[in-house]
Amino acid sequence: MQHLVGEDEFTVVQRVPWESVLDAFPEIRANPFVDRLCEVFSSKKDNCVSFEDMLDLFSALAPSCPVECKAKWAFRIFDFNDSNALETEDLHELIDRLTNGKVIREDGKYLSETEKQHIIDIIMSEVDLDFTGSIVTVEFVHAVSKMPDFCSSFTLKL
Fold this sequence. Notes:
About 50% of the residues lie in helices and about 10% in strands. It is mainly alpha-helical. The chain has 2 domains: about 1-60, Recoverin, domain 1 (Orthogonal Bundle); about 65-155, Recoverin, domain 1. The chain has a 3-stranded antiparallel beta sheet. Helix 5 packs across helix 8 (about 135-145). The chain starts with a strand and ends in a 5-residue tail after the last helix. It comes from Cloeon dipterum. InterPro entries: CIBP (IPR051433), EF-hand-dom_pair (IPR011992), EF_Hand_1_Ca_BS (IPR018247), EF_hand_dom (IPR002048).
């Protein structure tokens, strides 16, 4: 556990290792984006979180969090290369993580790379409103705000 002196000499900021968070909240460990949750919510990018970092995490994943706020956090989590845009590579990673790399078709077979690319092409055609080949935050927020299940899916249930 790290102890850092805060902005004034009377404040001590305690940072907890991410592994301790996962021990305390196994629901987070089971999340397919567990590594991204740490990367996005760790304010110091040191594999540790402060109390404020944990407040941000639990606020973003609370059922009562507004959809626009949830969407902005989700965007950051899904932006695997931290480019401030969701690109084809990010969407491939997103599909693989959501499905454990094993999307099963009705015939019992896994989706091929060609079929995954087809899904990505459809997503891009619907969400990439300025036709840049990537999805920026405002486009993502606009798209997920129209998805009725987004808020309930992007929630941590303790």
